[in-house]
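Predict fold of Nucleoside diphosphate kinase; 141 aa.
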Amino acid sequence: ATQRTLSIIKPDAVAKNVIGEIYSRFEKAGLKIVAAKMLHLSREQAEGFYAEHKERGFFADLVGFMTSGPVMVQVLEGDDAVARNRDLMGATNPKEAAPGTIRADFAQSIDANAVHGSDSPESAQREVAYFFGEDEICPRG
Ligand code: CMP
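Predicted 3D structure, encoded as tokens:
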């Protein structure tokens, strides 16, 4: 079924100037970009987005990294978009990411891991709404 998922190109990948290469992978996989914005997240925005991880030992580093430079945030739409995007990204830890995935090709470490993608349709709904109003999303059929 057609789904939406929230994707973030993280500060490391923006700094490497590979936004276009990553967009190309989404498009070649049949995912359509239906909303996008570049943001330099505030600490409050990053903490709110990752609230589910706030008890984890890596939370402070995660928030520090995600606020270290601009990110590109997009809504991807397509058949089975949540899982399809996760397949494209590869494992969270780039050392475990399959060859040819975004993280295998562009990521340095588990913190600087190039991209974020929603992990379920339920989190996609929350994460899309965190960054975009319905009037900012342009369904393209
Ligand atoms: P992301 O998909 O953005 O969701 C939370 C992020 O926390 C994750 O990608 C990683 O970049 C980062 N992170 C750092 N350490 C860990 C860890 N041990 N387990 C999961 N995520 C981690």
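The radius of gyration is 14 Å.
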